[in-house]
Amino acid sequence: MAGSFASINTALTAMRYQQVALDIASTNVANVGTDGYVRRRVVGETLGAASAPARWSRSTETGSGVQASRVDRMTDTLLDSRMRREHGRQTYLDSIADAFSRIETGLAEPGPSGVSAALADFRATLADLGNSPGSDAARSQALGAAATVVDAIKLQAAHLSDEGADQRSHLLASVKEVNSVASELAATNRTIAAALGGGSDTTTLMDERDALALRLSELTGAKATVQDDGTMLVELNGEPLVKGITAAQLVVTGGVAPDGTASGGPVTFALSPDTSGGTTAVVGSLGGDVGATVQVLDDALPSYVAGLAAVAKGLADDVNAAHMAGYDSSGVAGGKLFDYNAADILGTIDVVITDVSKLAVSKVAGPSNDGNNAAALAQAVKVDDQYQRLVNGFGSKVASAQQLAKNQQALTDQVDSTREQMAGVSLDEETVNMISAQRAYEAAARVMTTMDSVLDTLINRTGLVR
Question: What residues are paired with 47 via a beta bridge?
Fold first, then answer.
């Protein structure tokens, strides 16, 4: 439509469009500190002549203004996918580094209360006992030092057991959160599909969708992909966890019982029911927080516990062999100083001699104050190197985990910074946008005022003779 009245409508469309631009800018400013918010930008569309020519007529329109065609979220699909992947790796490495650091603290090495110090003290008391084999005080001190070694080993084993229990409880809590987030994402997918079908704005829903997908990546290392219909597909090692409006449930099928106790064997998972209504085992290792917990439960803790059990067994066997080669105060051949159940060495190892006269520190059969076997007992305490290799090996794992987490953090920060430049809200930029929209609005209002004056002249003054 052409003519003076059309110009008023053109100015009106400009004012409406700039009002939308102001609304979007103010929304961006209002959400500058909102987690997961992606800044918006209104996209204008020129209104003009019909896009298809008429058969028997022609359009007289030369310009009909502007309209807001859509509101875009300032995101990049590939960058979002990279961010989810790097955050999954970062969470995995951070969780492992944190768990390793707690375990290392529980070892109390090096320190005056650790196993290493207890072994050194036990060896020293046995050497002192050789100098005064007839002293009940020296014998009592040696038995006390042996008990201290056992207590130090058991305390370290208890710390490892507590860490394992905490990790199992954490795993169950994480799996519960995975299922909750997956259900929320499926519900969000449903709402997005309905909103797109009805032509409603979905930018806020997509912010929520992306935040939920990011959380699933942090929890499990899952791969999330945006589908053509705006919904998010989330897969665990190739198996769909969330597909459209359907969410599977992640289930722990081995390694951890529902009450948080260890059920034996490695930790395994399944999706039940999966998105097709059946049950599918999750093959391969997971990432994120869940994957890190499994790595600690299946590898780090069992490996160290086995090493500590080997140290305890070696100590008991070597000292017992030396002790049984000697004779006690009555001249009777010595028995076991330590005893344990091979099925649970760390839980059952103990000092079985309570009578100081039963310590076999003599090399001579029959009543004697000979203390030559005490030196052999001291030499039998030779697991220090084995224990140090165990502790140093774990220390290397801790240092490696912390270094990997630090290196990954540099990459994660770079990806986050790149995405923030696109999706983050800049107050300076939004201020410029608001001023620009304000000036454009004022200009459109001025056009309307001018057209009002033109129409007043046309209608009320045309033909008047003065």
Answer: 65
